[in-house]
Recover the amino acids of this structure.
């Protein structure tokens, strides 16, 4: 399944890169400013309420109908709210086109709400091949429409057309793959149970989305669409990279964490292993990206995106945090204790929003630095919460990331030296030389100083297909 996800993400990213080359920075900034409201609404109807259909309980017609009509009602209400709020949003941004863009994007919320149940059925039946084909075809159709509109001169509306075409294709594919059809009745008892189930994860997932979408809103309102565009492109790179790194690890860890919780205890040994592997892989990847941000942006998206390099370098630190925090989130959800983590996540959102407002007059790089600093400052509290659940010391858990952080620092020194020596080369050659240097430097340091984590990585990639040996937790404080 991980291979299918990688292919899907790669395909989406290629289309994104093509559109970024054709369209201007302002177009992406405008879309990011408006899409933040749409994405948050889409989140409320995608894989939240419908997740109850993935539990072990049998799927009765009453349950399916209740979930479907509850989602349809919520999707309809949110779509109307976006339509009515388009004017105030346009006034908030002082961008007249924002109203039309928000109205144009708003139907995707209702469309996604109507397809959440068939998607959940496919996930429950583990028909991942169908889901992968659906995602790839949706991306292809959306890409053709978006690129075609961009070449025809439609500007930012190309991104709206891409989104609508992709969502419509996903609906057709999802409903065509399942035999179930909704009936015009629902159970109040089932609706109450659905809402009770959903609120447990809604707060945490909503905070996760708000953390990365609220900056686009505030930056767009205070600095304008061009800085918002630079933030949007940097975030898209970080989002894609972190997704590709952490998804295989979560695929291994999530069912094991859940099984341990059902057996009456947290999977502490596995938690340590996954944490060690996450830092071992994510920290050098994002450290290298921080150094090579400018040639990477120019090569992928074109010279006009070069001013986003300082933002991407700073956001690379956030990428390290994001990968490690995803492991914490997975463990807390499996243990059935997401409450404190959700509270801490909303504290991060509130503090980050305040910092962005205060630092906005000093420019986008300073804003980005403040944004990242907030998450790093709150992070020890999340480690303390994780330690409380796992029965381990929070500082001891933090120290699991110290070695890869130091090794990544050594790698950065080597890569930066090569970049300085080869200054003036084309972005492609500079990126290639920096990447090769980073891989060799980190590989050598890991072989000399982190052989235990190399063995962990080999065991995961070996013939056992994701089996991780038990971690040695004897020296970890409890």
């Amino acid at each position: 399944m991980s291979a299918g996800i990688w292919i899907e993400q790669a395909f989406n990213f290629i289309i994104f890169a093509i559109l970024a080359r054709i369209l201007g920075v302002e177009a992406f900034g405008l879309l990011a400013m408006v899409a933040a409201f749409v994405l948050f609404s889409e989140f409320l109807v995608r894989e939240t309420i419908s997740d109850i259909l993935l539990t072990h309980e049998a799927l009765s017609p009453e349950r399916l109908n209740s979930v479907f009509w509850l989602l349809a009602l919520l999707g309809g209400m949110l779509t109307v709210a976006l339509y009515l709020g388009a004017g105030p949003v346009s006034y908030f941004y002082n961008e007249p086109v924002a109203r039309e863009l928000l109205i144009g994007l708003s139907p995707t919320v209702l469309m996604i709400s109507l397809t959440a149940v068939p998607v959940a059925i496919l996930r429950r039946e583990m028909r991942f091949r169908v889901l992968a084909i659906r995602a790839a075809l949706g991306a292809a159709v959306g890409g053709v429409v978006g690129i075609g509109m961009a070449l025809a001169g439609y500007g930012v509306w190309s991104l709206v057309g891409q989104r609508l075409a992709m969502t419509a294709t996903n609906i057709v594919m999802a409903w065509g793959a399942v035999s179930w059809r909704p009936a015009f009745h629902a159970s109040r008892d089932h609706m109450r149970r659905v809402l009770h189930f959903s609120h447990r994860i809604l707060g945490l997932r909503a905070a996760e989305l708000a953390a990365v979408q609220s900056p686009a809103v505030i930056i767009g309102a205070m600095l304008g669409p061009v800085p918002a565009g630079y933030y949007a492109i940097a975030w898209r790179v970080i989002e894609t990279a972190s997704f590709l790194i952490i998804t295989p690890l979560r695929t291994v860890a999530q069912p094991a964490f859940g099984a341990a919780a059902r057996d009456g205890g947290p999977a502490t040994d596995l938690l340590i292993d996954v944490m060690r592997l996450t830092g071992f892989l994510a920290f050098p990847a994002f450290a290298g990206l921080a150094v090579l941000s400018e040639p990477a942006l120019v090569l992928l998206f074109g010279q006009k995106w070069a001013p986003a390099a300082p933002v991407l370098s700073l956001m690379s630190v956030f990428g390290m945090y994001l990968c490690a925090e995803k492991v914490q989130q997975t463990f807390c959800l499996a243990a059935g204790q997401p409450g404190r983590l959700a509270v801490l996540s909303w504290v991060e959102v509130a503090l980050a929003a305040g910092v962005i407002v205060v630092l906005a007059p000093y420019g986008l790089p300073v804003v980005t630095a403040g944004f990242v600093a907030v998450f790093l400052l709150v992070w020890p509290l999340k480690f303390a919460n994780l330690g409380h659940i796992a029965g381990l010391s929070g500082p001891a858990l933090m120290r699991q990331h110290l070695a890869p952080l130091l090794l990544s620092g050594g790698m950065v020194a080597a890569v930066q030296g090569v970049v300085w020596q080869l200054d003036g080369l084309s972005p492609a050659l500079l990126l290639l030389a920096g990447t090769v240097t980073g891989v060799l430097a980190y590989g050598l340091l890991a072989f000399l100083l982190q052989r235990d984590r190399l063995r962990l990585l080999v065991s995961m990639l070996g013939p056992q297909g994701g089996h991780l040996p038990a971690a040695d937790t004897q020296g970890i404080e409890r």
About this structure: The two ends are 36 Å apart (CA to CA). The CA atoms of residues 291 and 350 lie 30 Å apart. The chain has two domains: 1-186, 221-461.
